Amino acid sequence: MSDSAENSSRGRRLEDLLDQSRLDGRIDIDTWAGGISQDNAQVPSVRIGRRWFSSLWLLPITIAGLIVAIALAQHLRQYEWMHSFIESYPGTSASYAPAVDTGFPAWLRWQHLFNIVFMMFLIRAGLQILADHPRLYLNAGSRPGTEWLRLRDAVPEDRMDPENAATAWTAKDDSVALPKWLGIPGFRHSIGLARWWHFSLDLFWLVNGIVFYVLLFSTGQWRRIVPRSWDVFPNAVSTAVQYASLDFPANEGFTNYNGLQILAYFATVFVAAPLAFVTGLLQAPSIAARFGFGRGVLNRQVARSLHFTILLWMIFFILVHTTMVFVTGFVGNLNHIVLGTETESYWALAIYVAVMLVLAVLWVGASPLTIRHPRIVQRSGRAVVGWVKSFMEWSHPKAIYDEKDISPFFWPNGDRPRSDEYRRLQADDWKNYELRVEGLVEKPITLSYAGILALPKTEQITQHYCIQGWSGIAKWGGVRVSEILDLVRPLPEAKWVVFYSFADGPATPGTGRYYDCHRLAHMREPMAILAYEMNGRRLNELHGAPLRLRNELELGFKQVKWIAAIELVHDFAHLGAGQGGYNEDREFFGYRMPI
Ligand SMILES: Nc1nc2c(c(=O)[nH]1)N[C@H]1C(S)=C(S)[C@@H](COP(=O)(O)O)O[C@H]1N2
Ligand SMILES: [Mo]
Protein backbone atom coordinates (compact mmCIF):
# COMPACT_ATOMS: atom_id res chain seq x y z
CA MET A 1 0.00 0.00 0.00
CA SER A 2 1.44 3.38 -0.91
CA ASP A 3 1.23 6.11 1.63
CA SER A 4 -0.66 8.61 -0.44
CA ALA A 5 -0.85 12.21 0.65
CA GLU A 6 -4.57 11.92 1.23
CA ASN A 7 -3.99 9.21 3.75
CA SER A 8 -2.17 11.51 6.09
CA SER A 9 -3.80 13.92 8.49
CA ARG A 10 -0.70 16.09 8.66
CA GLY A 11 -0.95 19.63 7.44
CA ARG A 12 -4.47 19.29 6.09
CA ARG A 13 -7.57 21.13 7.09
CA LEU A 14 -9.20 18.76 9.51
CA GLU A 15 -12.67 19.14 8.06
CA ASP A 16 -11.33 17.89 4.72
CA LEU A 17 -10.82 14.49 6.30
CA LEU A 18 -14.57 14.09 6.42
CA ASP A 19 -16.98 12.88 3.82
CA GLN A 20 -18.84 15.91 2.50
CA SER A 21 -21.67 14.21 0.69
CA ARG A 22 -25.01 15.32 2.01
CA LEU A 23 -26.54 11.89 1.70
CA ASP A 24 -30.13 13.01 1.80
CA GLY A 25 -31.31 10.37 -0.60
CA ARG A 26 -32.33 6.83 -0.15
CA ILE A 27 -30.43 4.26 1.82
CA ASP A 28 -28.54 1.70 -0.21
CA ILE A 29 -28.75 -1.46 1.85
CA ASP A 30 -25.94 -3.12 -0.14
CA THR A 31 -23.37 -0.59 1.06
CA TRP A 32 -24.98 0.23 4.42
CA ALA A 33 -22.68 0.01 7.49
CA GLY A 34 -19.73 -1.18 5.44
CA GLY A 35 -21.83 -3.46 3.29
CA ILE A 36 -22.62 -5.99 6.00
CA SER A 37 -24.65 -8.89 4.67
CA GLN A 38 -28.23 -9.05 5.81
CA ASP A 39 -27.96 -11.87 8.37
CA ASN A 40 -31.46 -12.50 9.60
CA ALA A 41 -32.52 -12.87 13.20
CA GLN A 42 -33.23 -16.39 14.30
CA VAL A 43 -36.33 -17.29 16.23
CA PRO A 44 -35.43 -16.41 19.84
CA SER A 45 -33.89 -19.15 21.93
CA VAL A 46 -33.81 -19.24 25.68
CA ARG A 47 -31.03 -20.69 27.80
CA ILE A 48 -31.94 -23.05 30.61
CA GLY A 49 -28.78 -24.03 32.42
CA ARG A 50 -26.28 -24.75 29.66
CA ARG A 51 -28.79 -25.71 26.99
CA TRP A 52 -30.57 -23.54 24.46
CA PHE A 53 -34.22 -24.05 23.60
CA SER A 54 -36.04 -22.53 20.65
CA SER A 55 -39.05 -20.45 21.66
CA LEU A 56 -40.98 -22.38 19.01
CA TRP A 57 -41.42 -25.01 21.73
CA LEU A 58 -43.91 -22.60 23.27
CA LEU A 59 -46.37 -23.42 20.50
CA PRO A 60 -46.89 -27.12 21.27
CA ILE A 61 -46.58 -26.39 24.99
CA THR A 62 -49.33 -23.76 24.78
CA ILE A 63 -51.60 -26.00 22.75
CA ALA A 64 -51.06 -28.91 25.15
CA GLY A 65 -51.60 -26.54 28.09
CA LEU A 66 -54.87 -25.29 26.62
CA ILE A 67 -56.15 -28.80 26.03
CA VAL A 68 -55.30 -29.82 29.58
CA ALA A 69 -56.88 -26.62 30.96
CA ILE A 70 -60.09 -27.19 29.01
CA ALA A 71 -60.35 -30.82 30.07
CA LEU A 72 -59.61 -29.94 33.69
CA ALA A 73 -62.08 -27.03 33.78
CA GLN A 74 -64.86 -29.07 32.21
CA HIS A 75 -64.18 -31.79 34.70
CA LEU A 76 -64.21 -29.39 37.65
CA ARG A 77 -67.50 -27.86 36.59
CA GLN A 78 -69.22 -31.17 37.20
CA TYR A 79 -68.67 -30.86 40.93
CA GLU A 80 -71.28 -29.38 43.20
CA TRP A 81 -68.73 -27.27 45.09
CA MET A 82 -67.61 -25.69 41.82
CA HIS A 83 -71.24 -24.87 41.04
CA SER A 84 -71.71 -23.09 44.32
CA PHE A 85 -68.29 -21.40 43.99
CA ILE A 86 -69.27 -19.97 40.60
CA GLU A 87 -72.64 -18.99 41.99
CA SER A 88 -71.08 -17.03 44.84
CA TYR A 89 -68.36 -15.60 42.57
CA PRO A 90 -69.90 -15.30 39.13
CA GLY A 91 -66.90 -13.42 37.78
CA THR A 92 -68.22 -9.94 37.14
CA SER A 93 -67.53 -7.07 39.48
CA ALA A 94 -71.30 -6.52 39.67
CA SER A 95 -71.27 -9.01 42.53
CA TYR A 96 -69.32 -6.64 44.80
CA ALA A 97 -69.11 -3.16 43.27
CA PRO A 98 -71.62 -0.78 41.69
CA ALA A 99 -71.78 -0.65 37.91
CA VAL A 100 -70.10 2.07 35.87
CA ASP A 101 -73.13 3.28 33.98
CA THR A 102 -71.69 6.30 32.21
CA GLY A 103 -70.79 4.35 29.05
CA PHE A 104 -67.49 4.67 27.24
CA PRO A 105 -66.95 8.40 26.70
CA ALA A 106 -65.44 9.74 23.47
CA TRP A 107 -62.09 10.64 25.06
CA LEU A 108 -61.65 7.07 26.20
CA ARG A 109 -62.49 5.62 22.81
CA TRP A 110 -60.13 7.99 21.01
CA GLN A 111 -57.33 7.36 23.46
CA HIS A 112 -57.81 3.64 23.02
CA LEU A 113 -57.38 4.10 19.26
CA PHE A 114 -54.30 6.32 19.64
CA ASN A 115 -52.82 3.77 21.98
CA ILE A 116 -53.13 1.07 19.31
CA VAL A 117 -51.38 3.26 16.74
CA PHE A 118 -48.55 4.22 19.10
CA MET A 119 -48.10 0.72 20.45
CA MET A 120 -47.76 -0.93 17.08
CA PHE A 121 -44.83 1.30 16.12
CA LEU A 122 -43.32 1.20 19.60
CA ILE A 123 -43.29 -2.58 19.56
CA ARG A 124 -41.89 -2.89 16.06
CA ALA A 125 -39.16 -0.30 16.60
CA GLY A 126 -38.41 -1.88 19.96
CA LEU A 127 -37.81 -5.24 18.30
CA GLN A 128 -35.51 -3.53 15.83
CA ILE A 129 -33.51 -2.07 18.71
CA LEU A 130 -33.22 -5.52 20.26
CA ALA A 131 -32.04 -6.93 16.91
CA ASP A 132 -29.07 -4.53 17.02
CA HIS A 133 -27.69 -6.43 19.99
CA PRO A 134 -29.69 -9.64 19.86
CA ARG A 135 -28.83 -10.95 23.32
CA LEU A 136 -30.32 -10.34 26.75
CA TYR A 137 -28.27 -10.67 29.92
CA LEU A 138 -28.65 -9.91 33.59
CA ASN A 139 -24.99 -8.92 34.22
CA ALA A 140 -23.78 -5.38 33.52
CA GLY A 141 -20.81 -6.69 31.53
CA SER A 142 -22.93 -8.38 28.83
CA ARG A 143 -20.52 -11.30 28.75
CA PRO A 144 -21.06 -13.58 25.74
CA GLY A 145 -22.30 -16.96 26.91
CA THR A 146 -24.14 -15.55 29.93
CA GLU A 147 -27.14 -14.29 27.97
CA TRP A 148 -30.52 -15.89 28.71
CA LEU A 149 -32.09 -15.04 25.36
CA ARG A 150 -30.56 -14.67 21.92
CA LEU A 151 -31.59 -14.21 18.30
CA ARG A 152 -28.39 -15.57 16.76
CA ASP A 153 -25.71 -18.18 17.42
CA ALA A 154 -23.00 -17.88 20.07
CA VAL A 155 -20.17 -15.41 19.47
CA PRO A 156 -17.39 -17.31 17.63
CA GLU A 157 -14.76 -18.23 20.25
CA ASP A 158 -11.83 -17.53 17.94
CA ARG A 159 -12.94 -13.94 17.50
CA MET A 160 -12.94 -12.86 21.12
CA ASP A 161 -9.25 -12.03 21.59
CA PRO A 162 -9.02 -8.34 22.55
CA GLU A 163 -5.38 -8.25 21.50
CA ASN A 164 -6.27 -9.09 17.92
CA ALA A 165 -8.11 -6.11 16.47
CA ALA A 166 -8.08 -7.65 12.99
CA THR A 167 -10.27 -10.61 13.90
CA ALA A 168 -12.40 -9.13 16.67
CA TRP A 169 -16.12 -9.89 16.54
CA THR A 170 -17.64 -6.44 17.00
CA ALA A 171 -21.09 -5.58 18.28
CA LYS A 172 -21.90 -4.54 14.72
CA ASP A 173 -20.99 -8.03 13.49
CA ASP A 174 -23.44 -9.31 16.05
CA SER A 175 -26.46 -7.31 14.91
CA VAL A 176 -29.17 -9.05 12.89
CA ALA A 177 -31.82 -8.04 10.39
CA LEU A 178 -35.57 -8.40 10.83
CA PRO A 179 -38.21 -8.76 8.15
CA LYS A 180 -39.29 -5.29 6.95
CA TRP A 181 -42.88 -5.89 8.01
CA LEU A 182 -41.81 -6.74 11.54
CA GLY A 183 -39.01 -4.37 12.52
CA ILE A 184 -38.81 -0.72 11.52
CA PRO A 185 -36.98 -0.41 9.14
CA GLY A 186 -35.89 -4.05 9.20
CA PHE A 187 -32.40 -4.06 7.72
CA ARG A 188 -29.32 -4.76 9.77
CA HIS A 189 -27.89 -2.16 12.15
CA SER A 190 -30.66 0.36 11.50
CA ILE A 191 -30.96 1.20 15.19
CA GLY A 192 -30.50 4.93 14.63
CA LEU A 193 -33.69 5.12 12.60
CA ALA A 194 -35.55 2.63 14.79
CA ARG A 195 -34.78 4.77 17.83
CA TRP A 196 -36.40 7.87 16.33
CA TRP A 197 -39.56 5.85 15.88
CA HIS A 198 -39.34 4.27 19.30
CA PHE A 199 -38.61 7.46 21.20
CA SER A 200 -41.03 9.72 19.32
CA LEU A 201 -43.90 7.29 19.57
CA ASP A 202 -42.96 6.72 23.17
CA LEU A 203 -43.41 10.38 23.92
CA PHE A 204 -46.83 10.39 22.24
CA TRP A 205 -47.73 7.20 24.10
CA LEU A 206 -46.66 8.70 27.43
CA VAL A 207 -48.63 11.90 26.89
CA ASN A 208 -51.63 9.82 25.84
CA GLY A 209 -51.16 7.72 28.97
CA ILE A 210 -50.91 10.70 31.30
CA VAL A 211 -54.06 12.26 29.84
CA PHE A 212 -55.71 8.86 30.19
CA TYR A 213 -54.77 8.63 33.88
CA VAL A 214 -56.05 12.15 34.57
CA LEU A 215 -59.35 11.56 32.78
CA LEU A 216 -59.81 8.11 34.30
CA PHE A 217 -59.60 9.51 37.79
CA SER A 218 -61.50 12.70 37.17
CA THR A 219 -64.48 10.92 35.59
CA GLY A 220 -64.86 7.81 37.71
CA GLN A 221 -63.97 5.55 34.78
CA TRP A 222 -61.10 4.23 36.91
CA ARG A 223 -63.70 2.11 38.72
CA ARG A 224 -63.82 -0.17 35.72
CA ILE A 225 -60.21 -1.32 36.03
CA VAL A 226 -59.07 -0.74 39.61
CA PRO A 227 -60.00 -3.65 41.87
CA ARG A 228 -62.13 -2.40 44.75
CA SER A 229 -62.41 -5.58 46.77
CA TRP A 230 -60.38 -8.70 47.43
CA ASP A 231 -63.33 -10.46 45.82
CA VAL A 232 -61.66 -9.69 42.53
CA PHE A 233 -59.42 -12.74 43.07
CA PRO A 234 -62.02 -15.49 43.56
CA ASN A 235 -63.97 -13.85 40.75
CA ALA A 236 -60.91 -14.02 38.52
CA VAL A 237 -60.47 -17.71 39.34
CA SER A 238 -64.14 -18.28 38.61
CA THR A 239 -63.84 -16.44 35.28
CA ALA A 240 -60.79 -18.48 34.35
CA VAL A 241 -62.59 -21.74 35.06
CA GLN A 242 -65.65 -20.63 33.09
CA TYR A 243 -63.60 -19.51 30.07
CA ALA A 244 -61.47 -22.63 30.16
CA SER A 245 -64.53 -24.87 30.30
CA LEU A 246 -65.68 -23.08 27.11
CA ASP A 247 -68.94 -22.20 28.86
CA PHE A 248 -68.23 -18.47 29.04
CA PRO A 249 -69.37 -16.18 31.83
CA ALA A 250 -71.98 -13.54 31.03
CA ASN A 251 -70.38 -10.56 29.23
CA GLU A 252 -71.34 -7.44 31.18
CA GLY A 253 -68.37 -5.51 29.88
CA PHE A 254 -70.35 -2.34 29.21
CA THR A 255 -70.78 -1.72 32.93
CA ASN A 256 -68.78 -4.32 34.84
CA TYR A 257 -65.66 -6.21 33.90
CA ASN A 258 -64.99 -9.65 35.23
CA GLY A 259 -62.20 -10.46 37.66
CA LEU A 260 -59.71 -11.52 35.00
CA GLN A 261 -60.37 -8.42 32.93
CA ILE A 262 -59.92 -6.12 35.90
CA LEU A 263 -56.65 -7.74 36.90
CA ALA A 264 -55.32 -7.80 33.33
CA TYR A 265 -56.29 -4.18 32.61
CA PHE A 266 -55.00 -3.00 35.97
CA ALA A 267 -51.67 -4.78 35.49
CA THR A 268 -51.30 -3.40 31.98
CA VAL A 269 -52.28 0.21 32.67
CA PHE A 270 -50.85 0.67 36.16
CA VAL A 271 -47.94 -1.76 36.35
CA ALA A 272 -46.60 -2.71 32.92
CA ALA A 273 -46.88 0.73 31.28
CA PRO A 274 -45.10 2.74 34.02
CA LEU A 275 -42.51 -0.03 34.38
CA ALA A 276 -41.79 0.15 30.65
CA PHE A 277 -41.04 3.84 31.07
CA VAL A 278 -38.82 3.33 34.12
CA THR A 279 -36.87 0.42 32.61
CA GLY A 280 -36.38 2.54 29.50
CA LEU A 281 -34.82 5.33 31.55
CA LEU A 282 -32.62 2.89 33.45
CA GLN A 283 -30.88 2.09 30.17
CA ALA A 284 -29.66 5.66 29.76
CA PRO A 285 -25.97 6.42 30.38
CA SER A 286 -26.73 9.91 31.70
CA ILE A 287 -29.07 8.58 34.37
CA ALA A 288 -26.83 5.69 35.37
CA ALA A 289 -23.76 7.95 35.39
CA ARG A 290 -25.56 10.44 37.60
CA PHE A 291 -27.06 8.02 40.12
CA GLY A 292 -24.76 5.01 39.84
CA PHE A 293 -27.54 2.56 38.98
CA GLY A 294 -25.19 0.67 36.72
CA ARG A 295 -24.12 -1.77 39.37
CA GLY A 296 -26.37 -4.40 40.92
CA VAL A 297 -30.00 -5.11 40.29
CA LEU A 298 -30.82 -1.90 38.45
CA ASN A 299 -28.10 -2.32 35.83
CA ARG A 300 -28.83 -1.75 32.18
CA GLN A 301 -29.00 -5.41 31.27
CA VAL A 302 -31.61 -6.15 33.94
CA ALA A 303 -33.54 -3.10 32.74
CA ARG A 304 -33.32 -4.32 29.13
CA SER A 305 -34.47 -7.79 30.15
CA LEU A 306 -37.41 -6.36 32.08
CA HIS A 307 -38.23 -3.96 29.26
CA PHE A 308 -38.39 -6.98 26.96
CA THR A 309 -40.49 -8.97 29.42
CA ILE A 310 -42.99 -6.10 29.48
CA LEU A 311 -43.05 -6.23 25.70
CA LEU A 312 -43.92 -9.93 25.92
CA TRP A 313 -46.71 -9.14 28.36
CA MET A 314 -48.03 -6.41 26.05
CA ILE A 315 -48.05 -8.78 23.07
CA PHE A 316 -49.72 -11.49 25.15
CA PHE A 317 -52.30 -8.98 26.39
CA ILE A 318 -53.04 -7.67 22.90
CA LEU A 319 -53.49 -11.21 21.54
CA VAL A 320 -55.78 -12.37 24.33
CA HIS A 321 -57.68 -9.08 24.50
CA THR A 322 -58.36 -9.06 20.76
CA THR A 323 -59.33 -12.73 20.75
CA MET A 324 -61.79 -12.12 23.58
CA VAL A 325 -63.31 -9.16 21.76
CA PHE A 326 -63.94 -11.51 18.85
CA VAL A 327 -65.30 -14.48 20.77
CA THR A 328 -67.45 -12.85 23.45
CA GLY A 329 -69.95 -11.01 21.25
CA PHE A 330 -67.95 -9.24 18.56
CA VAL A 331 -70.47 -6.70 17.27
CA GLY A 332 -71.68 -5.78 20.74
CA ASN A 333 -68.12 -5.32 21.97
CA LEU A 334 -67.28 -3.17 18.95
CA ASN A 335 -70.29 -0.98 19.71
CA HIS A 336 -68.89 -0.38 23.19
CA ILE A 337 -65.47 0.73 22.06
CA VAL A 338 -66.28 2.37 18.72
CA LEU A 339 -69.59 4.08 19.43
CA GLY A 340 -69.57 3.98 23.21
CA THR A 341 -73.10 2.60 23.38
CA GLU A 342 -74.65 -0.70 24.34
CA THR A 343 -76.13 -1.35 20.93
CA GLU A 344 -75.67 -3.90 18.18
CA SER A 345 -75.17 -1.51 15.27
CA TYR A 346 -73.22 -2.73 12.26
CA TRP A 347 -71.83 0.77 11.87
CA ALA A 348 -69.37 -0.07 14.59
CA LEU A 349 -68.16 -3.04 12.57
CA ALA A 350 -67.84 -0.92 9.41
CA ILE A 351 -65.84 1.75 11.24
CA TYR A 352 -63.67 -0.92 12.84
CA VAL A 353 -62.85 -2.48 9.47
CA ALA A 354 -62.07 0.93 7.97
CA VAL A 355 -59.76 1.82 10.87
CA MET A 356 -58.02 -1.55 10.60
CA LEU A 357 -57.38 -0.88 6.91
CA VAL A 358 -55.80 2.47 7.74
CA LEU A 359 -53.66 0.80 10.40
CA ALA A 360 -52.60 -1.85 7.89
CA VAL A 361 -51.49 0.86 5.47
CA LEU A 362 -49.51 2.59 8.23
CA TRP A 363 -48.02 -0.75 9.21
CA VAL A 364 -46.91 -1.62 5.70
CA GLY A 365 -45.71 1.91 4.92
CA ALA A 366 -43.46 2.55 7.92
CA SER A 367 -40.35 0.68 6.78
CA PRO A 368 -40.33 1.73 3.10
CA LEU A 369 -40.95 5.34 4.15
CA THR A 370 -38.04 5.19 6.58
CA ILE A 371 -35.71 3.69 3.98
CA ARG A 372 -36.71 6.26 1.38
CA HIS A 373 -36.59 9.31 3.63
CA PRO A 374 -34.16 8.58 6.46
CA ARG A 375 -33.14 12.22 6.91
CA ILE A 376 -36.77 13.22 7.35
CA VAL A 377 -37.21 10.52 9.98
CA GLN A 378 -34.08 11.79 11.73
CA ARG A 379 -35.23 15.43 11.61
CA SER A 380 -38.78 14.69 12.71
CA GLY A 381 -37.52 12.50 15.52
CA ARG A 382 -35.19 15.24 16.66
CA ALA A 383 -38.03 17.77 16.52
CA VAL A 384 -40.20 15.54 18.69
CA VAL A 385 -37.74 14.27 21.31
CA GLY A 386 -34.63 16.42 20.90
CA TRP A 387 -35.68 18.69 23.77
CA VAL A 388 -36.06 15.73 26.12
CA LYS A 389 -32.55 14.59 25.28
CA SER A 390 -31.09 18.04 25.79
CA PHE A 391 -32.83 18.13 29.16
CA MET A 392 -31.23 14.81 30.10
CA GLU A 393 -27.82 16.18 29.18
CA TRP A 394 -27.97 18.59 32.11
CA SER A 395 -26.87 15.93 34.52
CA HIS A 396 -23.29 15.70 35.75
CA PRO A 397 -21.76 12.25 35.53
CA LYS A 398 -20.27 11.07 38.80
CA ALA A 399 -20.84 7.33 39.18
CA ILE A 400 -17.71 5.31 39.76
CA TYR A 401 -17.48 1.60 40.28
CA ASP A 402 -15.20 -0.80 42.16
CA GLU A 403 -12.34 -2.86 40.78
CA LYS A 404 -14.50 -5.94 41.35
CA ASP A 405 -17.19 -4.54 39.04
CA ILE A 406 -14.82 -4.48 36.06
CA SER A 407 -16.26 -6.58 33.25
CA PRO A 408 -14.21 -9.64 32.30
CA PHE A 409 -15.20 -9.13 28.67
CA PHE A 410 -15.70 -5.75 27.01
CA TRP A 411 -17.49 -5.80 23.67
CA PRO A 412 -15.58 -3.97 20.97
CA ASN A 413 -17.12 -1.87 18.24
CA GLY A 414 -16.22 0.02 15.12
CA ASP A 415 -13.81 -0.25 12.21
CA ARG A 416 -10.13 -0.08 13.10
CA PRO A 417 -7.77 2.32 11.33
CA ARG A 418 -6.42 0.99 8.05
CA SER A 419 -4.03 3.78 7.05
CA ASP A 420 -0.26 3.42 6.73
CA GLU A 421 0.07 6.55 8.80
CA TYR A 422 -1.57 4.83 11.77
CA ARG A 423 0.50 1.65 11.33
CA ARG A 424 3.75 3.61 11.23
CA LEU A 425 2.92 5.54 14.37
CA GLN A 426 1.86 2.36 16.11
CA ALA A 427 5.03 0.53 15.01
CA ASP A 428 7.34 2.92 16.82
CA ASP A 429 5.15 3.08 19.87
CA TRP A 430 3.63 6.52 19.21
CA LYS A 431 7.03 8.28 19.37
CA ASN A 432 6.03 10.34 16.34
CA TYR A 433 2.38 10.71 17.28
CA GLU A 434 1.15 14.28 17.45
CA LEU A 435 -2.25 15.27 18.75
CA ARG A 436 -3.37 18.44 16.99
CA VAL A 437 -5.65 20.69 19.02
CA GLU A 438 -6.83 23.70 17.06
CA GLY A 439 -9.80 25.72 15.83
CA LEU A 440 -11.41 28.40 17.97
CA VAL A 441 -8.63 28.57 20.54
CA GLU A 442 -6.18 31.22 21.62
CA LYS A 443 -3.21 28.91 21.30
CA PRO A 444 -3.33 25.91 18.94
CA ILE A 445 -0.96 23.16 20.04
CA THR A 446 0.31 19.77 19.10
CA LEU A 447 0.99 17.34 21.89
CA SER A 448 3.35 14.40 21.61
CA TYR A 449 2.43 11.08 23.17
CA ALA A 450 5.12 11.61 25.82
CA GLY A 451 3.75 15.11 26.36
CA ILE A 452 0.29 13.71 27.00
CA LEU A 453 1.62 11.11 29.44
CA ALA A 454 3.42 13.92 31.26
CA LEU A 455 0.15 15.75 31.97
CA PRO A 456 -1.63 15.01 35.29
CA LYS A 457 -3.12 11.53 35.12
CA THR A 458 -6.62 10.58 36.24
CA GLU A 459 -8.28 7.17 36.63
CA GLN A 460 -11.95 6.23 36.76
CA ILE A 461 -13.92 3.02 36.75
CA THR A 462 -17.03 3.71 34.71
CA GLN A 463 -19.64 2.01 32.62
CA HIS A 464 -19.87 2.15 28.85
CA TYR A 465 -23.32 2.16 27.25
CA CYS A 466 -23.34 1.27 23.56
CA ILE A 467 -26.37 2.44 21.58
CA GLN A 468 -26.81 -1.15 20.44
CA GLY A 469 -27.68 -2.31 23.95
CA TRP A 470 -24.58 -3.85 25.52
CA SER A 471 -22.72 -2.31 28.44
CA GLY A 472 -19.40 -2.91 30.15
CA ILE A 473 -17.43 -1.60 33.10
CA ALA A 474 -13.73 -0.74 32.76
CA LYS A 475 -11.05 1.30 34.44
CA TRP A 476 -9.84 4.12 32.24
CA GLY A 477 -6.63 6.04 32.79
CA GLY A 478 -5.73 9.21 30.96
CA VAL A 479 -5.78 12.96 30.97
CA ARG A 480 -8.78 15.18 31.56
CA VAL A 481 -9.94 16.99 28.43
CA SER A 482 -10.21 20.09 30.63
CA GLU A 483 -6.46 19.87 31.18
CA ILE A 484 -5.93 20.22 27.44
CA LEU A 485 -8.56 22.94 27.14
CA ASP A 486 -6.60 24.93 29.74
CA LEU A 487 -3.56 24.69 27.50
CA VAL A 488 -5.28 25.92 24.34
CA ARG A 489 -7.71 28.36 25.97
CA PRO A 490 -10.96 28.17 23.94
CA LEU A 491 -12.29 31.41 22.45
CA PRO A 492 -15.70 32.57 23.65
CA GLU A 493 -17.30 31.52 20.33
CA ALA A 494 -16.22 27.91 20.77
CA LYS A 495 -19.22 25.69 21.59
CA TRP A 496 -18.35 22.24 20.31
CA VAL A 497 -15.30 20.00 20.47
CA VAL A 498 -14.75 17.77 17.44
CA PHE A 499 -12.76 14.56 17.79
CA TYR A 500 -11.25 13.22 14.55
CA SER A 501 -10.18 9.60 14.33
CA PHE A 502 -7.39 7.90 12.38
CA ALA A 503 -10.01 5.39 11.28
CA ASP A 504 -12.44 5.86 8.46
CA GLY A 505 -16.04 5.06 9.13
CA PRO A 506 -17.14 1.65 7.97
CA ALA A 507 -19.21 2.56 4.93
CA THR A 508 -17.86 1.57 1.53
CA PRO A 509 -16.57 3.04 -0.68
CA GLY A 510 -14.44 5.25 1.62
CA THR A 511 -16.64 7.81 3.26
CA GLY A 512 -14.17 9.77 5.31
CA ARG A 513 -12.99 9.80 8.84
CA TYR A 514 -14.94 8.77 11.89
CA TYR A 515 -15.58 11.84 14.00
CA ASP A 516 -17.95 13.13 16.62
CA CYS A 517 -18.82 16.42 18.31
CA HIS A 518 -19.23 17.06 22.01
CA ARG A 519 -20.49 20.13 23.80
CA LEU A 520 -17.62 22.17 25.18
CA ALA A 521 -19.39 22.33 28.56
CA HIS A 522 -19.43 18.52 28.73
CA MET A 523 -15.73 18.41 27.98
CA ARG A 524 -15.05 20.46 31.10
CA GLU A 525 -16.62 17.73 33.26
CA PRO A 526 -13.97 16.13 35.46
CA MET A 527 -14.96 12.73 34.06
CA ALA A 528 -14.40 13.69 30.42
CA ILE A 529 -11.01 12.20 29.67
CA LEU A 530 -8.72 11.17 26.86
CA ALA A 531 -7.84 7.65 27.89
CA TYR A 532 -4.52 5.98 27.09
CA GLU A 533 -4.99 3.14 29.58
CA MET A 534 -7.68 0.52 30.04
CA ASN A 535 -7.85 -1.68 33.14
CA GLY A 536 -4.36 -0.62 34.22
CA ARG A 537 -2.69 -1.46 30.91
CA ARG A 538 -1.74 0.55 27.87
CA LEU A 539 -4.82 0.96 25.65
CA ASN A 540 -4.72 -1.68 22.92
CA GLU A 541 -5.58 -1.17 19.29
CA LEU A 542 -9.03 -2.71 19.58
CA HIS A 543 -10.17 -0.25 22.22
CA GLY A 544 -8.69 2.87 20.64
CA ALA A 545 -4.90 3.29 20.96
CA PRO A 546 -3.26 5.69 21.28
CA LEU A 547 -6.12 7.80 22.66
CA ARG A 548 -9.87 7.46 23.02
CA LEU A 549 -12.50 9.67 24.53
CA ARG A 550 -14.59 9.00 27.63
CA ASN A 551 -17.67 11.19 28.07
CA GLU A 552 -19.73 9.27 30.61
CA LEU A 553 -22.84 11.29 29.86
CA GLU A 554 -23.21 9.93 26.36
CA LEU A 555 -23.62 6.65 24.50
CA GLY A 556 -20.70 4.61 23.18
CA PHE A 557 -20.57 5.76 19.58
CA LYS A 558 -19.67 9.26 20.74
CA GLN A 559 -16.54 7.90 22.47
CA VAL A 560 -14.24 8.40 19.48
CA LYS A 561 -11.36 5.88 19.36
CA TRP A 562 -7.93 6.23 17.70
CA ILE A 563 -8.01 10.00 18.10
CA ALA A 564 -5.89 11.93 15.60
CA ALA A 565 -6.94 15.52 16.24
CA ILE A 566 -9.24 17.79 18.17
CA GLU A 567 -10.89 20.94 16.87
CA LEU A 568 -13.01 23.54 18.61
CA VAL A 569 -15.83 24.96 16.53
CA HIS A 570 -18.85 27.20 16.94
CA ASP A 571 -21.22 24.74 15.31
CA PHE A 572 -20.92 21.57 13.26
CA ALA A 573 -23.15 22.34 10.28
CA HIS A 574 -20.15 22.59 7.92
CA LEU A 575 -18.61 19.27 9.00
CA GLY A 576 -19.38 16.13 6.99
CA ALA A 577 -23.10 15.99 6.30
CA GLY A 578 -23.61 18.48 9.10
CA GLN A 579 -25.30 16.21 11.64
CA GLY A 580 -22.61 16.21 14.33
CA GLY A 581 -20.68 13.02 13.70
CA TYR A 582 -20.03 10.09 11.41
CA ASN A 583 -22.92 8.01 12.70
CA GLU A 584 -25.16 11.04 12.79
CA ASP A 585 -24.30 11.72 9.13
CA ARG A 586 -24.31 8.19 7.79
CA GLU A 587 -26.53 6.16 10.11
CA PHE A 588 -29.00 8.88 11.07
CA PHE A 589 -28.22 8.87 14.79
CA GLY A 590 -28.96 11.91 16.93
CA TYR A 591 -26.05 14.04 18.13
CA ARG A 592 -27.45 14.24 21.69
CA MET A 593 -27.20 10.79 23.16
CA PRO A 594 -27.67 10.83 26.92
CA ILE A 595 -30.15 7.96 26.45
N1 LIG B 1 -13.04 5.83 15.39
C1 LIG B 1 -14.07 5.15 15.85
N2 LIG B 1 -14.42 5.29 17.14
C2 LIG B 1 -15.46 4.60 17.65
C3 LIG B 1 -16.22 3.74 16.83
C4 LIG B 1 -15.85 3.63 15.47
O1 LIG B 1 -16.49 2.92 14.68
N3 LIG B 1 -14.77 4.34 15.02
N4 LIG B 1 -17.28 3.04 17.37
C5 LIG B 1 -17.89 3.62 18.55
C6 LIG B 1 -18.83 2.74 19.21
S1 LIG B 1 -20.30 2.47 18.41
C7 LIG B 1 -18.63 2.24 20.45
S2 LIG B 1 -19.83 1.38 21.29
C8 LIG B 1 -17.33 2.38 21.11
C9 LIG B 1 -16.80 1.02 21.46
O2 LIG B 1 -15.62 1.11 22.17
P1 LIG B 1 -14.85 -0.21 22.52
O3 LIG B 1 -14.53 -0.89 21.21
O4 LIG B 1 -13.66 0.18 23.28
O5 LIG B 1 -15.78 -1.04 23.32
O6 LIG B 1 -16.39 3.04 20.31
C10 LIG B 1 -16.89 4.12 19.57
N5 LIG B 1 -15.79 4.78 18.95
MO1 LIG C 1 -21.80 1.64 19.97
Explain the overall architecture.
This protein is α+β, with helices and mostly antiparallel strands and 595 residues long. It has 18 helices and 14 strands. It has helices at 32-35, 58-76, 80-88, 106-132, 171-174, 191-219, 232-244, 259-281, 285-291, 300-327, 330-339, 346-372, 374-392, 420-427, 449-454, 481-488, 520-523, 582-586; strands at 45-48, 51-54, 135-136, 149-150, 434-439, 445-448, 458-465, 471-480, 496-504, 513-519, 529-534, 537-538, 548-550, 563-569. The strands form three sheets. A five-stranded mixed sheet has the order 6-5-14-9-10. Strands 7, 8, 11, 12 and 13 form a five-stranded antiparallel sheet that branches. Helix 4 (106-132) runs antiparallel to helix 6 and helix 8 runs antiparallel to helix 10. It is elongated. The structure holds ligand MTE and molybdenum atom. Residues 410-415, 466, 501, 503, 514, 543-544, 556-557, 559-562 line the site of ligand MTE. Ligand MTE is lined by residues 410-415, 466, 501, 503, 514, 543-544, 556-557, 559-562.
